[in-house]
Amino acid sequence: EGSGDGMISGCAVVLSTAxxxxxxxxxGAYHGGKTFYxxxxxxxxxxxxxxxxxxxxxxxxxxxxxxxxxx
Length: 71
Prior knowledge:
With 71 residues, this protein is an all-beta fold. Helix content is 0%, strand content 42%. Strands 1-6-3-4 form a four-stranded antiparallel sheet, with no helix packed on it. It is globular and about 30 Å long.
């Protein structure tokens, strides 16, 4: 969930050793309604969490994506 000290912190790391995949994660209520992007540049998507901080984060085939909050 990150440090919660008012700074933008926390990330979602998704790995795939086979096919492209989507992993549902709970980022915590602190990140509810926030948008994330893949800092590695592997994905162009934007992922927005629900009000509870849950979202589905994609990853490419045999890839890694590190999702961080915009802002």
